[in-house]
Design brief:
The chain has 13 helices and no strands. With about 280 residues, the chain is mainly α. It has one domain. α4 crosses α8. It is globular, with a radius of gyration of 23 Å. The model has no long low-confidence stretch (mean pLDDT about 95).
Length: about 280
C-alpha cells in the first residue's frame, strides 16, 4: 500500500523524530514547499544511520545548504556540458558529412559492423516526430521531402546519441576525430563521453550529484582511485579531459566552482563527492 500524503507540519515532525535539528520551523516549511520533502530527503543520505534515523548533530539548515551547493554545481556543469555537446556535434557532423556526403549517415556501409541501422533510423524518425513543429524540421520536410543533411539532423541528437554515433563510426574515422578534435585515443574518448552523457542526463533532470555513485568509471585519468572513481569528481575529470577550451575552463569554470565551494565549504564533506584535498590544482587545465 502506498504511503499517504503528509502535511508540511507532519513532515517537520518526521524529520525531528528521526533526529534532525530544526531551529527555524518557518524556514523549514518554506524549503519543503519550495523543494519537496521527497527530493530533499535524498540529501539526508550521508547523515542516515542503519536504523533510518539521523546521526547526532544533523541540522536542517546544513542539509539545505548542501542542496543549494548541489543545485549550483549542477548549473555550472550543465553550461560546460552544453558547450562540449555542441563542439562534439560540430566535429562529428563536419567530418562525417565531408567524407561520406550530407546524407551518408543513412548508409550502414559508412559505419562499423556493430551499427544497427534500423534502430538508428527509427531513433531519427522518433526525434523528427517529437520535433515536428520546429521551423527547420518543417522547412526540410517541405523543401527537401523530409531529407536532412547530417549537420541539420544532428541538432536534434542528444549527447547520448552523439556518443553512440561516434561509437558506431568506422575505426579510422574514430581515430581521426579522437586525435584531431580531442587529442586523445578512441578508447579514452568513448569512456569519457559515456561519463559525460551520464553527467549531462543527471544535470538535465535536476538529479542529485552530491553523494551519488555514478554508473561509469572513466579510464586512464589521473588522481582517481577506488574511493572516488564513481564520484562526481571522476565525472568532472572526464568533462575536463574532453572540454575543448582551456582558457574558458580555467577562467570561467574554475572561478565558478570555487565560488560555490566557498559559499558552502562549512557543510561540504569532500569525501562525499570524491574530491581530493588538492582538487583546485588538479582540476585546473
Amino acid at each position: 500500500m502506498l504511503k499517504k500524503p503528509t502535511t508540511f507540519e507532519q513532515q517537520i515532525d518526521i524529520l525531528r523524530n528521526k533526529g534532525c535539528v530544526i531551529s527555524d520551523e518557518d524556514l523549514c516549511k518554506d524549503v519543503l514547499a519550495e523543494v519537496g520533502y521527497y527530493r530533499l530527503s535524498a540529501y539526508f543520505l550521508p547523515f542516515r544511520k542503519a536504523t533510518g534515523d539521523y546521526k547526532p548533530g544533523t541540522n536542517f539548515i546544513n542539509v539545505y545548504s548542501i542542496y543549494e551547493f548541489d543545485r549550483k554545481l549542477r548549473r555550472i556543469l550543465f553550461s560546460m556540458l552544453e558547450e562540449l555537446e555542441v563542439y562534439l556535434r560540430a566535429q562529428i557532423s563536419y567530418y562525417h558529412a565531408h567524407k561520406y556526403g550530407s546524407d551518408g549517415y543513412l548508409n550502414s556501409a559508412n559505419f562499423n559492423s556493430k551499427h544497427n541501422n534500423k534502430h538508428f533510423t527509427n531513433r531519427i524518425n522518433d526525434i523528427l516526430r517529437s520535433n515536428s513543429k520546429a521551423a527547420f524540421v518543417k522547412h526540410h520536410m517541405t523543401a527537401y521531402g523530409g531529407k536532412f543533411p547530417l549537420w541539420a539532423i544532428s541538432e536534434l541528437f542528444t549527447f547520448g546519441m552523439l556518443s553512440y554515433f561516434f561509437a558506431d563510426m568506422i575505426t579510422a574515422d574514430q581515430k581521426n576525430i579522437a586525435f584531431n578534435s580531442f587529442n586523445t585515443t578512441v578508447v579514452k574518448m568513448k569512456s569519457w563521453s559515456r561519463c559525460c552523457t551520464d553527467l549531462r542526463n543527471f544535470c538535465a533532470h535536476y538529479s542529485r550529484l552530491y553523494y551519488r555513485v555514478f554508473p561509469a568509471v572513466p579510464v586512464s585519468l589521473p588522481h582517481l582511485d577506488n574511493t572516488n572513481e564513481n564520484s562526481i569528481f571522476a565525472a568532472i575529470m572526464a568533462l575536463r579531459a574532453l572540454y575543448p577550451n582551456v582558457n574558458k575552463w580555467n577562467d570561467v569554470f574554475m572561478p565558478s566552482i570555487q565560488m560555490a565551494f566557498d559559499e558552502h565549504r562549512s557543510v561540504i564533506d569532500n569525501e562525499h563527492i570524491g574530491f581530493p584535498d588538492d582538487w583546485e590544482n588538479i582540476l585546473r587545465k
